[in-house]
Amino acid sequence: MAAKYFGTDGVRGRVGVAPITPDFVMRLGYAAGKVLAKAKDGMTRPTVLIGKDTRISGYMLEAALEAGFAAAGVDVWLAGPLPTPAVAYLTRALRLSAGVVISASHNPYHDNGIKFFSASGNKLPDSVEADIEAALEQPMDCVPSEKLGKARRLSDAPGRYIEFCKSTFPNAMNLRGMRLVVDCAHGAAYNIAPHVFHELGAEVITIGNQPDGLNINEDCGATAPKTLVASVREYRADLGIALDGDADRLIMVDGEGRIYNGDELLYLMVKDRLATGPVHGAVGTLMTNMALEVAFKKMGVPFERAKVGDRYVLEVLQEKGWVLGGEGSGHLLALDKHTTGDGIVSALQVLSALKRSGKTLAELTSDISMYPQSLVNVKIPAGYDWKSNTALQAEKAAVEEELGERGRVLLRPSGTEPLIRVMVEAQQADLARSMAQRIAAKVL
């Protein structure tokens, strides 16, 4: 059965519009609490960690979740502003029943969402999300007063997570002599990321670290790296590091102002691991640049594509028993370092590769050239069956035949808007653009 509320990254939407309303979020907390209470197998009462990013709506949604969990008899630890991967880590490290993050990641401030982590620090399995959705269909009740959940503040959450991040960087290395600009996107890592890099020895210039509840991701961070480019040049920094609102994405900038996306950083991480041992495989998505697929084949590294979304990358990694994967958007996974995508930890893996090789980002990625991608979004009517459009399918097949092994075509519906996304990848930008427009013209 299709999920009613849960998407690829929890429950998300515009604040004040269902389902991101205080009454629904309270019921969500209660439903999740009932599911967790059933799963505790007679052990001590379940305890949940709640973290959030810096959106103004986080206060309201945190209170609603806390009330729902308390009504279900679940204790709550409140961590305050904390990156999504920090909640995953602390949930596992503190042996808690689950972790909850109040965040809409890279979206603007007027959106928000709720996502869950299991006791092991992984995204909840689909089966557990289905159980929570089923519980949401039942009336909300309340346990007897003597069984109500309690809440407490976890005041040392940032410090614990900072130490964890540092532990993923080699003990024999440091960042002394490096000048870094760190863009925290006015988000959850604003008071964490700078400390990690500083304590490892870097000179850190921090931007995007003045959250006011409304400026998260606004013209800054991983989704708007031009601000970081300007700062790297202004301060003559060696590198720039851009995170998004909940710090699970990473985009980097070198001293020349060149931007490196998730595909290039994944390639660098795989290449670095190959220098010290075998890499059994890597996972990208349907949107991963074809240049990686070609490069990995030459390197003898098996490559698989997952559906778009870091949770699907994680699923394939776990299925294959591999550790490295990611998306061009900057979600990067190194499962031997963390259970989920982590912008700070990923940056440390890149920095350790630079230190180990003595080379720059440009030098380490000089042997791979990204294929130009052209993306055309076509609005469609609600319920439109684009797969049955024979003219569209014929044009797609014709383009694929013309491209051969020199490119590829991807058609996919948007998960959040009434759009068909037409993407063509080719070795020449003008060819990719003209072919994408040819296919887009046949969508309707």
What features would you describe in this structure?
The protein has 444 residues and is an alpha/beta fold. It has four domains: 11-155, Alpha-D-Glucose-1,6-Bisphosphate, Chain A, domain 3 (3-Layer(aba) Sandwich), CATH 3.40.120; 160-258, Alpha-D-Glucose-1,6-Bisphosphate, subunit A, domain 3 (Alpha-D-Glucose-1,6-Bisphosphate, Chain A, domain 3, 3-Layer(aba) Sandwich), CATH 3.40.120.10; 260-364, Alpha-D-Glucose-1,6-Bisphosphate, Chain A, domain 3, CATH 3.40.120; 373-440, TATA-Binding Protein. The strands form four sheets. A six-stranded mixed beta sheet has the order 1-5-4-2-3-6, sandwiched between helices. A hairpin with an 8-residue loop joins β4 and β5. The protein has helices at 22-38, 57-71, 84-93, 126-136, 157-167, 193-199, 226-235, 262-276, 290-299, 310-320, 343-357, 361-364, 390-403, 429-440, and strands at residues 11-14, 47-52, 75-81, 98-102, 111-118, 151-153, 179-183, 203-207, 239-243, 250-254, 259-260, 282-285, 303-306, 324-326, 332-334, 373-379, 407-413, 419-426. The longest helix has 17 residues, at 22-38. GO terms for molecular function: magnesium ion binding; phosphoglucosamine mutase activity; phosphomannomutase activity. Catalyzes the conversion of glucosamine-6-phosphate to glucosamine-1-phosphate.
